[in-house]
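Human:
Take a look at this sequence-structure pair and walk me through the tokens.
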Amino acid sequence: MPPRSTSGYDCSLILFANLDASGGQIFSEAAAMALAARVGRPQAREIVERASRRAAQAGRPLREVLAEEPLAARHLPSAELDRIFDPEQGLGEAAAFVDRVLAARRGSRKEP
């Protein structure tokens, strides 16, 4: 079931619209971390920052531009880029945390 805000709106629609609008820039840190494991942090940061600037200037998705960077393409195959830029991967345990908070909140309310 898609996440809903307290006002009843489908939050996933807003999330995906924002991700599309950003061109995937929000995933730059995840891309840098994945690349750093293979080429070192300074070089990974440089590669991802360069790709991010190019993507923003050209109005293109970061994932596309990063795939064109030779060193990034050598170390981050298409399937791994798909995983890095998958919004579902970034959620981690968020849904479980929200469920726990809501359950605790419901449990703390005193019935009249």
In short: The longest helix spans residues 41-58. The two ends are 31 Å apart (CA to CA). The helical segments are 11-22, 28-39, 41-58, 62-68, 70-75, 78-84, 87-91, 94-108. The chain has one domain: 11-108.
